[in-house]
Amino acid sequence: MTEKRTLKHPARYSYSDCLRDAVPTPTGLNGTTLYQLLMVGGTVAFVVTANGVRSSGADFVEHSH
Asked: Residue 4: pLDDT above 80?
């Protein structure tokens, strides 16, 4: 029988790890909720910025963010 190790500190991942899809998807209620919140928030921010720049030009970023 193999013992299952528990980490005292969670593993750290860099932004490039996330871009390369080398980060495991969070599990558990807190991890899943936080992941969904960050994904929805990031998607909304990106789409609003892209549409604002498309309709108002580059000044949108300077004046609205």
From this structure: no
